[in-house]
Amino acid sequence: MSRFAFFGGKGGVGKTTVSAAYGLKCADADLETLVVSTDPAHSTSDVFDQQFSDEPESVTDHDGLHAMEIDPDQEVEDHLTELRRQLGEQLSPAMVNEVSMQLEMAHQTPGAYEAALFDRFIDVMRDADDFDRIVFDTAPTAGTLRLLSLPEFLQGWIQGLLEKREKSIEYFERAALGEDRIQEMRETDPIIARLTERKQRFEFAGEVLREDAAFHLVCNPDQLSIRETRRTMDTLREADLPLAGIVVNKLTPSPDPEEDGRGARYLRERVATEEERLAEIRAFDAPVLAEIETRTSEVVGSLLADVADELAIEPAPRP
Question: Once rounded to an integer, what is the mean pLDDT over residues 128-148?
Fold first, then answer.
């Protein structure tokens, strides 16, 4: 089993419930497990009835289980602050003020959210030596896919910037100082050092996502969710990201055979419709890992353990 497990899907399908249940399943299998929420809604605290921060914390009454919640807005602000600090070390005050204004505007765009969050995302993956399994409760599908497309895109973009910076040093130094200083300047240039560090981060992320990660899609038995799941499957495969399977959540329970009131007739019609939807999902080129009925109350406590038992995702020991 891959060390990093991702649970994605459109908003409201129950990703937090399923990812928390899988985290509990892993911890019960004696794996030190970390559940990471990158969803702005942050329902992980509600599931475990415990407030979490952006650093791993032990989950009360569950040995080996830990959780953290990443605040996307705070990550964007921290990202901007760090960039300003680095600029202050490399540019004149006048240039810093001008570039800082441009950065402020750039960080209002949707891409800044994904870029800042992905930096934190990489930090979690790189600093997770204390854990055998890391479970990501990801944001709704559209944002997640933008996030997962970043390594390859940014790696190529940074490589281009790196080549341009090296060329500029070569031309400038050859004209001003001669050939002997070119290599020395390349080795000490702070911009090249920063670009190289960024390139290595994205190479690491791309390798982990493709070689040590498993993606699970959570969907509900309705057409909107099924269409979103199908699109996500296609996108994951185009990006060469491993799809482990599908969890169908919030299925309607069937009434008892002897029930024949209005409510029972409604439930039978709904169950029949959902069976048609389930047939579509089962025909996908991906295994169905669980078919979970909806509960009448919030899935917490013992109900979370019940959901964990229904997940056909076995937590193998860490290699």
Answer: 76
pLDDT in tens, 76-103: 777 677 766 766 666 656 666 666 665 5
* Residue 114: other Cβ atoms inside 10 A: 22
Phi, psi (deg, nearest 5) at residue 290: -170, 150
Percent of the chain scored above 70 by pLDDT?
A: 71
User: Which among 143, 135, 136, 140 is positioned nearest to 13, based on CA atoms?
Assistant: 140
Neighbours of 61 (CB within 10 A): 10
**Angle formed by the axes of helices 110-126 and 72-90, nearest 10°:** 90
For the chain, give the secondary structure using H, E and C: CCCEEEEECCCCCCHHHHHHHHHHHHHHCCCCEEEEECCCCCCHHHHHCCCCCCCCEECCCCCCEEEEECCHHHHHHHHHHHHHHHHHHHCCHHHHHHHHHHHHHHCCCHHHHHHHHHHHHHHHHHCCCCCCEEEEECCCHHHHHHHHCHHHHHHHHHHHHHHHHHHHHHHHHHHHCCHHHHHHHHHHCHHHHHHHHHHHHHHHHHHHHHHCEEEEEEECCCHHHHHHHHHHHHHHHHCCCCEEEEEEEEECCCCCCCCCCHHHHHHHHHHHHHHHHHHHHHCCCCCEEEEEECCCCCCCCHHHHHHHHHCCCCCCCCC
Question: For residue 2, is pLDDT > 90?
Answer: no
How is residue 25 written in tokens? 């399943």
223 CA to centre of own chain: 24
| Whole-angstrom distance, CA of residue 234 vs CA of residue 228 | 10
Calculate the alpha carbon distances from 191 to 86, 150, 165, 188, 232 in Å. 10, 21, 8, 9, 37
Tell me which residue of 276, 68, 233 sits closest to 141, measured CA to CA: 233
Strand pairing category for 65-69 and 57-58: antiparallel
Integer Cα distance of 170 and 186 in angstroms: 8
